[in-house]
Fold this sequence. Notes:
By secondary structure, the protein is mostly beta strands. It has a single domain (6-236), classed as Inosine monophosphate cyclohydrolase-like (Glutamine Phosphoribosylpyrophosphate, subunit 1, domain 1), CATH 3.60.20. It is built from five helices and 13 strands. It has helices spanning 6-10, 42-45, 91-100, 105-109, 199-209; strands at 19-24, 30-38, 47-52, 55-60, 77-80, 83-87, 124-132, 135-146, 149-161, 167-172, 189-192, 215-224, 230-236. Strands 11-10-1-2-12-13 form a six-stranded antiparallel β-sheet, covered by helices on one side. A five-stranded antiparallel β-sheet has the order 5-6-7-8-9. The protein has a two-stranded antiparallel sheet with strand order 3-4. A hairpin with a 5-residue loop joins strand 12 and strand 13.
Amino acid sequence: MKAVNLEAELSSTTYPGRGIIIGRSADGKKAVTAYFIMGRSENSRNRVFVTDGDGIRTQAFDPSKLTDPSLIIYAPVRVLGNSTIVTNGDQTDTIYELMEKGQTFEQSLRTREFEPDAPNYTPRISGIMNVENGKYDYAMSILKSNQGDPSSCNRYTFAYENPKAGEGRFIHTYQMDGNPLPSYEGEPTLVDLSAEDTLDSFADRVWNSLNADNKVSLFVRFIDIATGKAESKIINKNN
């Protein structure tokens, strides 16, 4: 698979939905992740990311306009030991709680499936980054309906050991805008991570490439692979 330009990939559709990027910085020193949310409805757009311990959570920007919190209010990022969990729903908590009890990332997700939001049946996308003793690996997952058939859940896990510097993987919920929304297809897209990327410049690169009308919030984290020290940034459209 040939790496594609990150900005071009992000801007290729007006509505990729929610997306996770995970990879390794061009200098090889940082584990990199980004998670963004988008929205078409007033309820989906009425959100911000806020810090919650070592992770983040979503909350209503204007609580008086919140109509249905079930699929939009959750903790996208949580940290368990040396692992950072990033997902597009409350399966973050499922992964955290079951891994704490000794199950693996993949085993934890076997208890979940796609979202019950017919007719879209939005895929659940998840990622986990493991940084320990100067070593780094990550995995990504997508749980999706069988081409819109809710009686069947297709489960895919992709694992990346000792990821190459300057490369990232990008997975998102929808191929493009539509009605119903077509689910993401294939393995996570290989994208470039620039040699010039800092936390701020990478965050700006992602944010500025997302559709201006539909983007809602972005979270970016760089983790020093040698020390495990993390630095993060949140950008919210609603301020």
